[in-house]
């Protein structure tokens, strides 16, 4: 009992007479062999992804999660458009001091209405 085979999902012991499912070196109870996202029990022939820690994800949920990750990774911040007046203010400030101190950059940010990061760059 202490040293016998344990289910990867629930960590409970598996008696030698019980039917199990295997995925690589991992062993599961029949009812534990299920997708962690949708809880659908996986059957023989179902395509699934095996995570490093032994968790199972059905193909549909894995592809949905992957598409969501790809769409979030591609989202970029819109470009900042600087008006002529803002540009003139920034040029004058940087002409006087090529590396302005933080308080000067904060003042420029409030004067121009631009983000601190934009003023710094």
UniProtKB/TrEMBL annotation:
Ranges for domain LIM zinc-binding = 5-68
Organismal lineage? Eukaryota, Metazoa, Chordata, Craniata, Vertebrata
Chain spans, region Disordered: 96-121
Give the UniProt subcellular location, in the record's own words.
Answer: Nucleus
In terms of PANTHER family, this protein maps to: LIM/HOMEOBOX PROTEIN LHX (PTHR24208), LIM_HOMEOBOX PROTEIN LHX4 (PTHR24208:SF116)
Q: Which SUPFAM superfamilies match?
A: Glucocorticoid receptor-like (DNA-binding domain) (SSF57716), Homeodomain-like (SSF46689)
Q: What cellular component terms from Gene Ontology apply here?
A: nucleus
* UniProt-listed GO biological process terms: neuron differentiation
A single GO molecular function, which one? RNA polymerase II transcription regulatory region sequence-specific DNA binding
* Classification via Pfam families: Homeodomain, LIM
Task: Tell me yes or no: is Oxidoreductase among this UniProt entry's keywords.
Answer: no
Q: Which CDD domains match?
A: homeodomain (cd00086), LIM2_Lhx3_Lhx4 (cd09376)
Q: Which residues form the Homeobox domain?
A: 73-121
Question: Which range is the signal sequence, renumbered to this chain?
Answer: none
Q: What is this protein called?
A: LHX4 protein
Give the record's keywords alphabetically. DNA-binding, Homeobox, LIM domain, Metal-binding, Nucleus, Repeat, Zinc
């Amino acid at each position: 009992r202490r040293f016998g085979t344990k289910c990867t999902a629930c960590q409970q012991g598996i008696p030698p007479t019980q039917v199990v499912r295997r995925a690589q070196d991992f062993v599961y109870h029949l009812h534990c062999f299920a997708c962690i996202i949708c809880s659908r029990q996986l059957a023989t022939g179902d395509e699934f992804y095996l995570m490093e820690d032994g968790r199972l994800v059905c193909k549909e949920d894995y592809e949905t999660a992957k598409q969501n990750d790809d769409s979030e990774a591609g989202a970029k911040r819109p470009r900042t458009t600087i008006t002529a007046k803002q540009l003139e203010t920034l040029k004058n400030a940087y002409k006087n001091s090529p590396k302005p101190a933080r308080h000067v950059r904060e003042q420029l940010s409030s004067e121009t209405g631009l983000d601190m990061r934009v003023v710094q760059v």
